[in-house]
Amino acid sequence: MKRLLFFILAIFISFQGIAMPPNEGKEADFSLENFIKHWESQNSNFQKLNSKLKTDFSKYGKSQKFLKMLFYRSQKYLLGTYSQFSGIDDLMQEGRFDCVSGSLLLSVFLESYGFEFDVIETSYHVFVRVVLDGDYVILESTDNYEGFIYKPADVAAYLAEFEEVKPSRDTFYLEPTHQLVSEILNPVVFKVIEVRELKGLEYFNKAIFHNNKGEIDLAYNYINQAESYYGSKRIKTMKNLIQSQLVLAQAGQ
Questions:
Q1: Are 220 and 246 in contact (CB under 8 A)?
Q2: Which of 9, 106, 131, 178 pairs as cysteine with 116 (C-beta 3.0–4.6 A)?
Q3: What is the C-alpha separation between 109 and 165, in angstroms, rounded?
């Protein structure tokens, strides 16, 4: 099962001659309705998926059968190849996705059809947990074969993988000055987030990707966008690190 999402591969990179880029500012609030309208007009596979799901919902309503159709039709039409740090544009244009963009796609339709569900952010992964008739159904976007998890014992085993991994923070910090770095490298996270906050995690991933490539100006702009959608501690921490690198690079000119 492909899961690695938030690894920082090369936080401290040497930069020279980089000026502080302007802050791009906040984007408009993420709209599920606009998301569907936009991609239906831009992507034929999304259009087919949306059309199929409308037919499925008219037949099955809020049922496990519909959830299964949503999951596997999404895999068939859009979720092609897992690729770390792939956002919604990558998914729609090339079929490349990660757990953030995959979960975002599924969540858009779940909300559109009025399902009760949670987007779960963990230390290194994101998945969707649907509440149906008092039970949970897991939609694990990165596993196209066994990612539709509905049997109670299987659901419990899946959730236990994340809920039980909560190491002591004392194991992270060798000294107080290491706190910022450890918050990113070893975050302890298991919580429900909003769908729009997935957009924040998408931009967070983009910031990591460009930071690792040494493109610090792009990383800075993406981390600002991430914070505008989701002001989580690890996003703020990453922003502080990028800002520090920018200051050092400016001083080295």
A1: yes
A2: 131
A3: 30
The answer to whether 137 and 120 are in contact (CB under 8 A) is: no
Q: What is the DSSP string of the chain?
A: --------S-SS----S-PPPPP--PPPPP-HHHHHHHHHHH-HHHHHHHHHHHHHHHHH-SSHHHHHHHHHHHHHHT--EE-TT--HHHHHHH-EE-HHHHHHHHHHHHHHTT-EEEEEEESS-EEEEEEETTEEEEE-TT-TTT-EE-SHHHHHHHHHHHHT----GGGT-SSGGGHHHHHHHS---EEEE-HHHHHHHHHHHHHHHHHHTT-HHHHHHHHHHHHHH---HHHHHHHHHHHHHHHHHHHT-
Residues 6 or more apart whose Cβ sits within 8 Å of residue 150: 64, 67, 68, 135, 137, 138
Mean pLDDT per block of 10 residues along the chain (253 residues) reads 40 30 45 89 96 98 98 97 93 95 96 96 92 96 96 95 59 44 63 92 92 90 95 90 84 65
User: With pLDDT > 70 as the criterion, what percentage of the chain qualifies?
Assistant: 77
Identify any residues that bridge with 189 across adjacent strands, giving them in sequence order.
none
pLDDT tens digits, one per residue of 29-83: 568 888 999 999 999 999 999 999 999 999 999 999 999 999 999 999 999 999 9
- What predicted TM-score, i.e. pTM, was given to this entire model? 0.81
Distance separating alpha carbons of residues 101 and 106, to the nearest angstrom: 9
Q: At what angle do helices 195-212 and 216-229 cross, to 10 degrees?
A: 170
Nearest to 16 by CA among 216, 220, 221: 216
